[in-house]
Automatic annotation (TrEMBL):
Residues 42-197 form the NAD(P)-binding domain. It comes from the Eukaryota. The lineage of its organism: Eukaryota, Viridiplantae, Streptophyta, Embryophyta, Tracheophyta. Signal peptide: none annotated. This is NAD(P)-binding domain-containing protein. InterPro entries: NAD(P)-bd_dom (IPR016040), NAD(P)-bd_dom_sf (IPR036291).
Length: 230
């Protein structure tokens, strides 16, 4: 399987992805750091911009890709329209590019609390902080809703707060609109996205993930299988 990774400034270098899949990283930022030598990508690298429409993304993704993992995010700043352009419209452009190419598998890295208002978490400090510059979580939720209606075989992964440190504790996976706090390593998020590619139990599901020291270790089949489709 050829997998296109759509990223911004930091690719999640998951060894299992490059072991089992031909990978085509599409860099949203031309200033993205190079991967560590120990994890150098054995694949081509293409620069693309998710905000420039689906046709250009079609060219970047290519007709040999069978899946797309979307891990984009806007660059923090004072442009209040950036989250809407990247996290909402940019993701929509990717979905449309996939539909034009016949790509049938789409993994989106989103965030917990995207539906915070409906969860009664509108005063949650994390919900307020993430929405203060351009309604980031609102933009992500709009993109999620588009994906659900698109007909594409999707898995939406909503991680808790991201950390760069190595994983600690065990993975906890919950249904949508369940988690409202917690931390998880970016490495674990990457692994979840990769595992979702090959598991039918992950299809057409929204999952929320966090790491907890007291959680039992479970297989990915068990974790994804425990979440019901809606």
């Amino acid at each position: 399987m050829a997998t296109a990774l759509i990223i911004k400034t930091r690719l999640l270098y998951a060894p299992r992805l490059h072991h089992h899949h031909h990978c085509y990283p599409l860099l949203f930022s031309t200033t993205s750091p190079k991967p560590p030598k120990s994890q150098s990508l054995k694949s081509k690298k293409v620069t693309a911009d998710v905000t420039k429409g689906s046709d250009k993304l079609v060219q970047a993704i290519g007709d040999d890709s069978e899946a797309v993992i979307c891990a984009t995010g806007f660059r923090p700043g004072w442009n209040l329209f950036a989250p809407w352009k990247v996290d909402n419209l940019g993701t929509v452009n990717l979905v449309e590019a996939c539909r034009k190419l016949g790509v049938k598998r789409f993994i989106l890295i989103s965030s917990i609390l995207v539906n915070g208002a409906a969860m009664g978490q509108i005063l949650n400090p994390a919900y307020i902080f993430l929405n203060v510059f351009g309604l980031t979580l609102v933009a992500k939720l709009q993109a999620e809703n588009y994906i659900r209606k698109s007909g594409i075989n999707y898995t939406i992964v909503r991680p808790a707060g991201l950390k760069n440190e190595p994983p600690s504790g065990n993975l906890v996976m919950e249904p949508e609109d369940t988690l409202y706090e917690g931390i998880i390593s970016r490495d674990v998020v990457a692994e979840v996205a990769v595992e979702a590619l090959g598991l039918p139990e992950s299809s057409y599901k929204v999952v929320e993930i966090v790491s907890r020291a007291d959680a039992p270790k479970r297989t990915y089949e068990d974790l994804f299988g425990s979440i019901k489709q809606k």
